[in-house]
Hints:
The structure is a single chain. By secondary structure, the protein is α+β, with helices and mostly antiparallel strands. About 35% of the residues lie in helices and about 20% in strands. The strands form five sheets. Strands 1, 2, 3, 4, 5, 8, 14 and 15 form an eight-stranded mixed β-sheet that branches. A seven-stranded mixed β-sheet has the order 18-19-17-16-22-23-24, with helices on both faces. A five-stranded antiparallel β-sheet has the order 6-7-10-9-11. It is globular, with a radius of gyration of 24 Å. The N and C termini lie far apart (about 70 Å).
Amino acid sequence: MMGEQTREGGGTIMLGGDQEPGNYYVGVDVGTGSVRAALVDQRGILLAFADQPINQWEPQFNHHEQSSEDIWAACCVVTKQVVQGIDVNQIRGLGFDATCSLVVLDKQFRPLPVNHEGDAHRNIIMWLDHRAVSQVRRINETKHSVLQFVGGIMSVEMQAPKLLWLKENLRETCWDKAGHFFDLPDFLSWKATGVTARSLCSLVCKWTYSAEKGWDDSFWKMIGLEDFVADNYNKIGNQVLPPGASLGNGLTPEAAKDLGLPAGIAVAASLIDAHAGGLGVIGADVRGYGLACEGQPVTSRLAVICGTSSCHMGISKDPIFVPGVWGPYFSAMVPGFWLNEGGQSVTGKLIDHMVQGHAAFPELQAKATARCQSVYAYLNSHLDLIKKAQPVGFLTVDLHVWPDFHGNRSPLADLTLKGMVTGLKLSQDLDDLAILYLATVQAIAFGTRLIIEAMEAGGHSISTLFLCGGLSKNPLFVQMHADITGMPVVLSQEVESVLVGAAILGACASGDFASVQLSSAPEKDLLPTSQKSQVLGQGLASADFVIFPGCCPFPALRHCQHCGISPLNPLCTEEAMARMSKVGKVVFPRLEDKRYYDKKYQVFLKLVEHQKEYVAIMKGD
């Protein structure tokens, strides 16, 4: 058994207890405000954890920037910390995930400025940057066919509008000098291996790449970025690999020295951070918990990754088109499955905004500090204190919030929407702050319910939520999601599920999870003898390999390095997911409160309806 977590210096947690010798994997997660790393064993248990803050700049409203050099340096710090005291020769693989931010480098791989100040150190346009509003409006006006794979409307947070903004606004200082435009996860894998190949996850989800057809020349020409077509897409990626595929010759000697790892260990093609979280939780074995998804396909599960923003990841065997929900993307998260991705922009940031901007926040800070609690733990206990005999959720009977303070990502896909609060009073005491905090958490959960309804109307069948990310550590946030959606919420045994997902990538790249038991697929799915021989010829130890017929409808993708048949055989990844993802806790909805939340949901929907009416009035004659 693992010991208790004990915080050591430098942002590192070492997990005590006797460790059986075995194989280890390092997962690195670059979030919005910090870089985190973990050392994970073959059971999916974290042996060490470290984090390091990273800088952000906001030179003007809706412009958010970071530095790739700053981020790589933080990756090196945390990776060295988590492998201290470990025989590094037991580390078999390295996986990266990161936010879908845009990294700009010149032809010699040096940073270029993405700002009017000309500061080349700030060479990343962050995912939450909304500077390209004009550009995305024009892109959506084209009604090009690629838009059907992003819910019909492209988000300002995707890369095409940001690239167009750079061309139109920073032609001389950035655009004309650029040699490489990376999604941040792909930048990290390049930095580690020297391989410029892009992950299918990044290109399909944020760049309009098609796993079936590749790049669509007509789209880039139509929006004014024909430069990429003429360059054979060299600047944005013309070699594409599935997530978890092993890159090149592994970790370069230079990167190995930076990271404190052995040169040559396997480095995986990367994932976007939310997708790594989905990979880390969605495959858990749920037997014995009384859940509706037990014995059902993994497609009945929805992974909700909730941190600075919230992402809702649902998978399907066949493509499902949901208006206002991104996708379907083939093999973007779980190989062999189509992904739909709903989302809510800046949910964690919204909670911080509402709480920290309240007049009672200084009092809250002082009282939380006196109790050695976080402000949110204190607010949760304060809500329990003031709720008296009623359920805590009933405290907001007269207070309602519409949470789109940064526009709506899904399913309305309307970046012009604003936040709303109704039911305010003159009171500004701690009770008032606690109830506003509760109403905000509820509004985020109602937004999840709206996304689920849209996905189910499109053809998904969802019965269980799997939550991970920073907000999933807040018991009020989890319970409100269960109560408001009416679905049980599964929390992972390992709370750092995103890091487990990154480590799963490294495990897949290492080849340690290539073996699948003969009984895990029906008789008709077995490989023919000739193909078994081909697999065994690659040095694998057993003939017990199976594959879904036709699991790769797109043979242009590179084949799985383990089975040699499909791009990252789904069963190779499923084994890693099942072995390294475990249920920690299940939170069931309070069904007796359903009628109350149904009423609040009606009010929730009225809020946005009224907001649109107000806009129409103000625009009218």
